[in-house]
Automatic annotation (TrEMBL):
Superkingdom per UniProt: Bacteria
Cellular component, GO annotation: cytoplasm
Molecular function per GO: metal ion binding; sulfuric ester hydrolase activity
UniProt-recorded name of the protein: Sulfatase
Alphabetically ordered keywords of this record: Hydrolase, Metal-binding
Amino acid sequence: MVRKDRRPNVLLITCDQWRGDCLSAAGNKVVRTPNADALAAEGVLFRQHFGGAAPCSPARACLYTGLYQMNNRVCRNGTPLDARHGNIALSARSLGYDPTLFGYTDVSPDPRTLAPGDPRLKSYEGVLPGFTVRQLLPEHQKPWLSWLEARGIDSGAGFPDIHRPADEIVGATTDGAVTTSPPVYSKDETPAAFLTGEFVRWLGEQERDTPWFAHLSFLSPHPPFIVPEPYNRMYDPADGTAFRRAASWQAEAQSHPYLAYELGQQQRANFRPGAEGKVRDWGDDNLGRIRALYYGMISEVDAQLGRIWQAVKAADAWDETIVVLTSDHAEMMGDHFMLGKGGFFDGSFHIPLIIRDPRRRKAAGASVDRFTEAVDIVPTLLDLLGEVSPPHLDGQSLKPFLDAGEPGNWREAAHWEFDFRSVADGHAERHFDIGPRQCNLAVIRTKQFKYVHFGGGLPPLLFDLEQDRDELTNVAADPAYLPVRLELAERLLAWRAEHLDQSLALAELTEDGVVGHVAGLPPFQS
């Protein structure tokens, strides 16, 4: 147990693009995740946990700041994170930790804080302020490639070709068929294995009496979809449930203008280097093999989680360490003829969350079916560390669930946002003939219904999830559902009104000075 004279260690792990239903502890009958399951057996599994946005940078902005996209305003990969916002690393540092990063955070720095020629302005893969970087692993993966070279693996192809099958000629295009052939690197030489090794080495250097805060940010199971033996053939492509989709991609495209646009945009090369053509035309055999590889990638990163658990236990720190295991966003995995993330489907936003606090054993092994969101992570960690969460944050602490309780006035719906503007080239803006401020959607999802509101005059969507689990039939124009549509639209509007930027709205200047809360400053009067 954590000694009363010191704070606990914190281990925050994100596995990029891990879908929430791809966890054996959550009931998946195919994919096997024994080490994540072991964590769930000692902690709490949150079954209805949702990311706040997509892709990576917007999703992580919600996770790291505790603010919805409407407030952090990170809309796309490359959108700068306003320097005025706090985050979990800065908060941990203020408590005496040295938050240490292994991997990446995909945070674009505020250009107003940098000189015009600063090279950091040329990449969206910046580091969240507050973190000490022990091992950076951005998209080009050069540190990992150098490590492979030192182990005798020819990495001359670089990224992304290093992730092509070893029996495929680099530089050649393929006929479109997806194989389960492995890459040139082994199961002990994956990027996840590399990062885990760096963490284990760092952990051995930590002073026993000094609490630490580490963030491991794994790329897996993010594309490219390829994995070494034995994981590449661990799962049969025929296994798994049927894809959630209409009879054809054309039918999907006809159901809404945004889906038609997205299906036309997705390119196979973004998911398998060297592949040509559009994802929508890949066919069931190829999508089935991709799903099997995706499951294998999950099992591979799960094996690295096992190494981490062993290392923390060997350091005699397991019972002094809070562990949070989650993702930034999820993966469509062939549903609706799509791969990747974005849009409004649950497949893109339903993500895993497991929290283990060794001081709270009453709820060990429990699962929670209430709606939780990525913005809840920051207030939860602050609460577990004995700090009062700033009232302007959008998330709520999950600590009551960890104490086997039920918090009062908990949300009855999940919310997320997706912004599809393309500032650099204006592609989406031209396609829909709308402005960048209108290229967005917002979702409210209850147990029974999902309502999707679009900007720019695009038609709304309403799904009756009890009758239509696969989100195929839009009933927004059905007169029988008009009361439901109006109610959810009003609830979505009320949600936005409640959560719009509260940085200064919770403070007031009076004859006695400042009363209330100013984000970034200590509380004034209550």
